[in-house]
Amino acid sequence: MRVVRPKPALLKSALLKPALLLALALFAPLPARAEPAPPERTLAQVKARGHLVCGVSPGVAGFSVPDGQGRWRGLDVDFCRALAAAIFDDPEAVRFIPQSSAARFTSLQSGEIDVLARNTTWTLSRDTAAMNFPAITFYDGQGFLVRKSLNVTHVKQLDRATICLQQGTTTELNLADWFRTRGLTQNVVTFANSEQTLGAYESGRCDAYSTDQSSLYGERLKTAHPDDHVILSEAISKEPFAPGVRQGDDQWRDIVAWTHYAMIDAEEAGIRQDNVEQMRREAPSPDVRRILGLEGGYGERLGLTTDWAARIVRHVGNYGDSFARNLGDATPLKIPRGLNALWNQGGLQYGPPIR
Amino acid sequence: MRSETEGYVRKTLIPPAPPPRRLGGPLAWARTNLFANWADGVVTVAILAALAWLVPLALRFLVLDAVWTGTSGEACRPEVVGRPVGACWAFIGEKINYLAYGSYPAAERWRPNLFFALLAFGAAWMLWLGAPKRAWGAAYLFLVFPVLAYALLAGMPALGLAAVATGLWGGLLVTVVVSMVGIVASLPLGILLALGRRSDWPVVRYACIGFIEFWRGVPLITVLFMANVMLPLFLPGDVTVDRLVRPLVGIALFASAYMAEVVRGGLQAIPPGQMQAALALGLTKTQALRAVVLPQALKIVVPGIVNTLIGLFKDTTLVSIVGIADFIRVLEAARADPRWSAPAVPATAYAFAALFYFGVCFSMARYAGFIERRLAAGEAR
Asked: Of A211, A238, B13, B195, which residue has the fewest beta carbons closer than 10 angstroms?
């Protein structure tokens, strides 16, 4: 039964119009997809803003982890701080936005972040999808965690072994491919998350736990007796971690690439965080003089200052400093340099000359 | 056989029964409440057995075997301590600042603290029924406090408060902000939508139905992904909406759609005669709604409202999926720290989260129960 309303006509006309407008506004078409940022703009935007915005992983041991005070630390974090040091001479002029793996590429595309340093594997399909990977900051690969008591040293010895994996990752495909091409067999048991996978491995459900080597070192620390387990040095896949930038801004791409190369070249030339000022005064060789900006003026070509690389080493250190601080023997992770050693020490890290 | 009754009337008295064995005391209470019949007894024994099994386990993990001090995960390893290890509270202790404030700058942490204090003050004013001038308390909590909180947390350079980007907020602070925005926005919005859905004007009615059905028809996680992943792609390059505000708006609209349906349930329970009588007395429709219909309707739906609010509070953890550093997200990040890698740490982190959420939700439910009993006092005549 309807309630009798007083003076409906007046109220109706007064309310109808705004309601109609509201309805129209609700169903109005959304603006079309925005034009991509014009090229050569990222550096100018970053400078105008006064800080860099860097997308990092929300928590991966050694790569980006917040400490007890909420300060971010790790290899990826250091890379962003190095970039901020090169631009602003201030490693704190950077804001970290933790990125979920689902949203990371959108954040980069929409301009929410300037650079994505989030242990992201460089692949062809990602490279061609409107982004670029200027340099490889960490060479990772799928590895195996096994008990020392098994006396396994090569992956081949895991023939007919039971291997624990996390569901929904490429590790399962990699594993199947690798074993099949070598005529070996394996039993794979998959679990929903890393806790369950590790739990199954520890309880003896599987002989080995397989995922990226860089994660395995962190997983090993979570076991009851870390020293009873070993990570095989052999890797069965290539997982090159690279920072990502938007396509179409060559200047920014160069800056990101050369920030990494400056850290590599500094390590090769023996310029460390603790001797950079001394090196700057003594400047023993032309290489060092060019890296530290005493000769040349290479920084200006990147749109930065002459002493850009000196700033990076002074505030963050060279690649070896950062590696030792976040992943190496100074940390509980104790990840060996392996493929990430300099090219002249048996690794793959090779910085083109600053010249 | 001789009949004992004559017509409807019994002819002799029934013999007196013996008195009940016990009228008061714990034994009688247990008999009536715990062992009234065979099934009750079985359930009681089963529950007691479960408690006897679980409580010592929980007590041992949470208190007796727990590690309270330490500077790294080593302190929480059984082989280092030399005894079984339960919860690693030292880990929570070390990370407590990060869990409370996220990356909020250390020098500015008095601001979230003041925010928590202002919130507690407003909540106490509103919720303590004996407090003076409770209408002002509501005005403070729903109008003044949000403005104050915004100025305090985000910063207001004009007042000398440095701006703090929302990307730095985290932990408990974000969980409280997201829940408060959801609660403060969804109650009034939900009431308006419920009234709109029952409106006689088709435009208003269909707009409200469309709104409610749209937001109820999509999962919250989709709304959040839309807000944080899709929306930035639609906006023109130089228009940016803060990445904390986007999910906040999504949650507020989502929660108000649910709230609207709860309130509508209450409105439908009020007989139309109430409104007619109020109009006949000369009240306008607004006055009748405000003074007659809504108070009765809201009283009926207190359990539904509290249910929605508790659900909303727990749903806020979903923002962690789109990269907002809420309480759960910072716990996850904190335990990724290799320095604090120990088998006991993940369990400790989740136990801490469970205690926190249980504490908050249980208090909400208890308070709602108290309000219900008070409101029902009028019917117990």
From this structure: B13
